[in-house]
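Morning!

This is the sequence you dropped in the shared folder:
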Amino acid sequence: MKRALFITFNEVRLYLQDKADLAFGLLLPVITFALMYGAFGGQTMFKATAPVVNEDKGAYSAQLIEQLDKVEGIKVELLTAGEADTKLERSDLLLVLFIPSDFSETLVSGDKAGLVFKQRGNGGQEGQILASIIRGVVETMNQEFLVRSQVRSNLEGKGIPENSIEVTVKEYLDKERQQAAVVIAEEVTGGSPDFINQYLPGIITMYVLFSLSLSARTIVEERKRGTLERLLTTRLNAHELFIGKFLSSVARGFVQTFILLVLSYAVFRLFTPLSFLASLVISLVFAAAAAALGMIIASIARSEDGATWIGVVFTMFMVMLGGTFFPVSEGSTLATIGKVSLNTYANDAFRTIIAEGGSLGDTLQPLAVLAGVAVVGLVISRLIFRAVPGGK
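The structure's back. Tokens below.
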């Protein structure tokens, strides 16, 4: 066993000294996470630009644009009619709000003013959401007009100046906006919507699986070059060689996960000391399961390219079925098929700890499955490993 550990330590040392391996195993996951965080902003709030063509010169169109621009996440972009038509024609925009030239004048006269949505097709999902937000702002303005109309009607003939009525009504409306009778609060079920909690487990498991499965290429190369045969001419036997290679794969995956978790703790403050230790236990069990399957790949592949492609296909299959970056509905066909994916259990365990604040005891079921895969995979890979030249 001591000689097997020597192989493990040597393999880990070589891994840490290999800049290419470190870049793939550590730097690439960090860059991927940074790119995804930058693309999605780590926020669940809707953000969009509202293209507006304002052909009206009155005060009410300006008020509408001002109210729309105050909506959190909405930025108004003013366009000319020609620019809007051109962008709609080219599909650069899918929906544009047109404010007609008589908008303010019609409202002053007491008639109903109209707004026009010009859209390409159905306006797209973002356009439909944006149109709903604009309708909400317009509805608020309608209510304000109704209040002013009722106040004027009630005070008509009492000698109160129009300006005084307007100022008083505006003050009360502003007060109502600041001290609304009904407030809306968000209550999230099924875990936190936080970007980091949602995607970090998937990034960790995906790259660990990639790294461990592709490490099978190294064993295939050693077998073809006769390195394994030369090792077996020493006091090292086939069993020790097999255990040493397996433990080195486990150690490699664990080191990679450990560094990623440490970086996450330092930058995002995701963990308590107990949750960090629980995550390390999950990482170790997952690395063992992935390493066992990686050893199977190394044993059945007959060329370096074959090992690489088996590893790539195997990893992508696990990632897609394991709910790595998107939720899978319970009871669905995909969820049923996904039970064969290691990522399903590893991601569940990580999210229980990171996103839900659970304890290691809450992850016993997925950990048991991963441990079972590690044991069974180890036995199967050991049997196949006998086919390695010089093996017994």
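Headline: Residues 124-155 form the longest helix (32 residues).

More detail when I'm at my desk.
O.
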